[in-house]
Amino acid sequence: MAYSSYSNLSRAQLTFEYLHTNSTTHEFLFGALAELVDNSRDANATRIDIYTEKRTELRGGYMLCFLDDGIGMDPNEATHVIQFGKSNKRSPGSTHIGQYGNGLKSGSMRIGKDFILFTKKGNTLTCLFMSRTFHEEEGLDEVIVPLPSWDLTTKEPLTSDPEKYAIETELIFKYSPFKNEQQLMEQFGKIESSSGTLVIIYNLKLMDNREPELDVETDHQDILMAGTPVEGVKPERRSFRAYAAVLYIDPRMRIFIQGHKVRTKRLSCCLYKPRVYKYSSTRFKTRAEQEVKKADHLAKIAEEKAREAESKRLALEARLGEDLSKDSRAILRKVQDSAMMLRQDSDMKKRILEAKQKALKEPKELNFIFGVNIEQRDLDGMFVYNCSRLIKMYEKTGPQLEGGMACGGVVGVVDVPYLVLEPTHNKQDFADAKEYRHLLKSMGEHLAQYWKDSNIAQKGIVKFWDEFGYLSASWSAPPSSESRYKRRRAMEIPLTIQCDKCLKWRTLPFQMDAVDKRYPDSWVCLMNPDSSQDRCDTPEQKQNLPCGVLKKDKQTAEDKQKELAEKIKQQQEKLEALQKTTTIKSAADLKKLPLDVSMKPTTESSSQATRSSERSITRPRSPPLPAHLKNAPSVLPSRTTSQRPSRTPAPTPSPPKVETSRSRAAVKPPQPAAKSASKATPKTPPSSRGSRTPAKASPAKPASAGQRKRIIEEEDSEEEEEEEEEEEEEEEEDSEESEQEEPQTKKSKMAAAASNRGKVIEKTLPPKRGKLDEMNIHSQPEKKGVTTPTRQTPTSVPKSIPTQQQHGTKAKATEKAPQQEPESDAKNTQKDKGLLVEVRVNKEWYTGKVIAVEANKRSVRWKVKFDYVPRSTPKDRWVFKGSDEVRLMRPPSPISQTPDTQQKTEKGPAPMEPDTTQPGTSREVTDSLVTMLRTMLRYFFPPAFRIPKDDVNSMTAEDLVAFPLKEYFQQYESGLQSLCNSYQSRADARAKAVEEKSNSTEVKLKEADEKLQTLRTNIVALLQKVQEDIDINTDDELDAYIEDLLTKGD
């Protein structure tokens, strides 16, 4: 159908209100300014000047100008500016930033109400004027844009319609700051190069206080965001100079703000130990699928046109037949050529479609660059560029989201092509949020790998930052300005500067006198002290970055099964908690609650949450005391078996000791016998003060081998669950009440359980189900009337086990010497539970605690639960004792205690100690204790101690005995106290701020109540004027009366 057939149809029109609506896409004001800078870069400009001119008669008091030396525009190209969405930059392989044909209009209208553009190209001068003020004054609804042009040499207007030219210039003189043609020509004169563009924005938008949004008075060399505080705001969010410095990933254009050059940065050259990671993925398909769809549409249209032309050719050939006249041959040749060209065009479109379909299946490759910002460590995060233009900055991902010191100070940089991710129109985000989240997740994985490759954590994070002058406990505090720290930072990051002439980047060699040196804005290659790079014709050196590889830990089937079981358990716990929840809908429901319900636990938990949140905000933190140090006794107990004294003395020997989970986590003693289903005899006294009601006596039944095995398994599972629960509680305990109440509850429960288990015991069984233990249990003969002494401590009295008989079978408890040795070995292996060890996983050492032990004839295995491991690593692991994969970290003995922890354990039995009646310790045990003491001293070694830390490794046992422990721990305590004081002062400051805010809120609330009361009084007075006999005395009566009026009105 011909185009003329559509001439009578309605057309969409653009109203001038759209100029304002279109500008609201820029929430970030500097993003609007960057749109005009992007246009200069796309025009191949080598320099752009951004400056202001004072004009007090204009709104805002000044004009904002953008002047570049790009290719400019002729009158025909300038008409594309006033076509919204028209862009010649849009192509699949384009490296231009602009793609939508909207940046100049939306950006300039976000800054001010009006702008005027002057451009020069070839032998023409063109002026474009777009003004909302003009439309408002004239009452126009359509967007009218005057666009006059002149000859560069003669300054004569280039127009075939003088009347149109006169109207255009008259409007410009009336509504622009330039009132005659001479002033217009002066603006063209500012474009000194052979081509270029000048954009002037005026009648700037104002804030509520009638001040412009851009502050040009505070800093005469910068453009600042008005009303933005210095503290707590990233510099790029406050200073346009700082934002322009990182606007492009590889700057090739000089940017001047208020006449002073911006020191642009290549971020990868400003980082400590940068490393690049190659990443490829097939997930980024949205933009490529759009291109394939578009190419398929064009290929189908071309194919239809080619078929139509070929059909026309065949029809013409058949119609002409034998007619070989000159005119017929000319017509036929023309039709044949047209059909051939359309067929070639169709074939080319098909090839393009095939290439794009192939590219859709190929993975997209990206380069992730990571490095440490040692100049200002709190400025960390990911910088995401699109076609070399900054889109997102300071994006936290991976370990940085956890708020700890891991990956703190690390900056990531990536440049995403337009075909991989498409930016939004305001270039402050990406159109496909799902694919962008996938990109950040991938960067987080590579960030964790970089943190491992950098070895910062292995050497010590605090020590690493101390080397560069970060001596304050506050993460956001700037580094020290001492000369030695400045030199240290300058030595690690070579200075990279751009030549003002050839625009190439040069890396300067380090010089002691160049630290803090201010280089001129007009620096050129000739000033380079490196003779190999002191000429502009010398090629630019490429940055040689080491390449890293992401190493993914493969999960075994066992790990996957364990992870799935944990998830199922968590969901079940959540479901049980929801089922136990009671919904309170009224005050009556609240009265039905038990009387012992109080707000005290809530207060404790809230305060605990507050303290934990403060710890997560402040990254540097001292290491917590280990559990075995925290709960160890200050004095060695005289007895290895401790028990709470009973209210009435009993002549019979005490039953086996039941210890709390806290003491079991420190040093694991031999466990009491497994629980049996039999009842206790009447002669057995209560085991502890917690068990008030003694169990009734009943004849006991001997357990079979299968029952004993099940008993061991049940006890094992119970103890492991109790240990895991206690470990979680010890990590979360902050208040003294929780430390006292919870162990007492568990202790009473365990004591009661021990009283039931300890009534009738055939033998003391080890708690873990090793193969050797099971074999010993099954192979024990049972005899009647034989007593076996159960020896736990030197002071324990041998107990006679009463004879048992069931179904005529005699139970005998005779043990032979060959069976006693494996049993004692199994008991000794259980003492390893609670040891603090280090385990090597994927060539890295992680700290943890032994929570289970398995022993057989050949070896002993430890189950170690880690304190911290990456998400991809299991939280526990079985290792062989004595292998190269495990090493002892700190001994669970009183030697490892500090003065802070050498206090009596509150409200709990003391942990069991080894038998002290045995012969003296061997040389091997002494060496082990010496090694453990060295490890402890190195672990808590205070900084600047008078004895060097390395000397501890060479100390003998005699040297360690003479070691000044008192001075050592006093210095450690002072450092710890100073750190705690800093945290306390910060907490006090925050509490004061919260209190002030609360007071101000109360004042506002009081004012609001007064206003509401005044309003009610006025309403009553108004109603009484309308109806004199009305009688309203209370607020409730007034509300009811108004509601009744509204209901009647409806």
Question: What is the compact description of this entry?
Answer:
Helices cover 40% and strands 13% of the residues.
General description of the model:
The chain has 1050 residues and is an alpha+beta fold. The chain has 28 helices and 25 strands. The protein has an 8-stranded mixed sheet. The chain starts with 16 loop residues before the first helix and ends with a helix. Residues 595-623, 625-630, 632-714, 733-819 and 890-919 have low confidence and may be disordered.
Radius of gyration: 42 Å
Helical run tally: 28
Report the principal-axis shape: globular
Mean pLDDT: 75
Element layout with pairings:
Layout: H1 17-23, H2 29-42, E1 47-54, E2 62-68, H3 75-78, H4 103-111, E3 112-121, E4 124-131, H5 132-138, E5 149-151, H6 162-175, H7 181-189, E6 196-204, E7 214-215, E8 224-225, H8 235-238, H9 240-245, E9 254-257, E10 260-261, E11 272-281, H10 286-320, H11 326-361, E12 364-372, E13 381-386, E14 389-395, E15 410-416, H12 433-454, H13 456-459, H14 461-467, H15 483-492, E16 496-498, E17 505-507, E18 547-548, H16 557-580, H17 587-591, H18 600-617, H19 627-630, H20 661-666, H21 705-732, H22 736-757, H23 771-779, E19 805-806, E20 809-810, H24 817-830, E21 836-841, E22 844-855, E23 860-866, E24 876-880, E25 886-890, H25 923-939, H26 957-961, H27 965-1026, H28 1035-1049
Parallel strand pairs: 1-9, 11-18, 13-15
Antiparallel strand pairs: 1-2, 2-6, 3-4, 3-6, 4-5, 7-8, 9-10, 11-12, 12-15, 13-14, 16-17, 19-20, 21-22, 21-25, 22-23, 23-24
Helix pairs in contact: 1-4, 2-4, 10-11
